[in-house]
Amino acid sequence: MEIKTGYLYHIKDKYFDIVDDETLMQNHEKGKKRPTYFTIKDKDILWFIPVSSKVEKYKKIINKKIEKYGFCNTILIEKIFDKDAAILLQNAFPTLEKYIDHVHTLDGKPARVPKKLEKIILDNFKNLMQLHSRKIKVFFTDIDKIKEKMLEEIK
């Protein structure tokens, strides 16, 4: 399977067992799989950004962040396939291709977000990664620790 930036994927349970990090979203509600993930391919590492349908929950969090900081770039509410969705950049984490379970499909075709939205997500993610490199905590998970674990697996 060729993995591409801008598409939505699902992850294998095995990844969560290996990483063993309680700060990662653990979502098996009502027998459903974990959320779909917007994917960014960065050489051997893939960055997964959860996409949630719980828009009202995240709108409240966004509003609190806006009240406190004047803006919110860690959660985006955007239309994906004609439905509002919460794009949870703050919950991003690194993984490897071998942990992808399957591509998310829509009408039997691989699901890809529109190019305009892809650019918005990529720009925000790049900004958050710059903040992270300056030791500003913007991600819930210790992405450096997980990335190191993933890079060790590649060796």
Describe the structure.
- With 155 residues, this protein is an alpha+beta fold.
- The protein has a single domain, classed as Thiol Ester Dehydrase, Chain A (Roll), CATH 3.10.129.130.
- Helix content is 34%, strand content 27%.
- The strands form two sheets. Strands 1, 2, 3, 4, 5, 6 and 7 form a seven-stranded antiparallel beta sheet that branches. A two-stranded antiparallel sheet has the order 8-9.
- β4 and β5 form a beta hairpin.
- The longest helix is centred in the C-terminal third of the chain and has 19 residues.
- It is globular and about 45 Å long.
- The two termini are 21 Å apart.
- The mean pLDDT is 90.
Summarize the structure.
The chain is of the alpha+beta class. It contains four helices and nine strands.
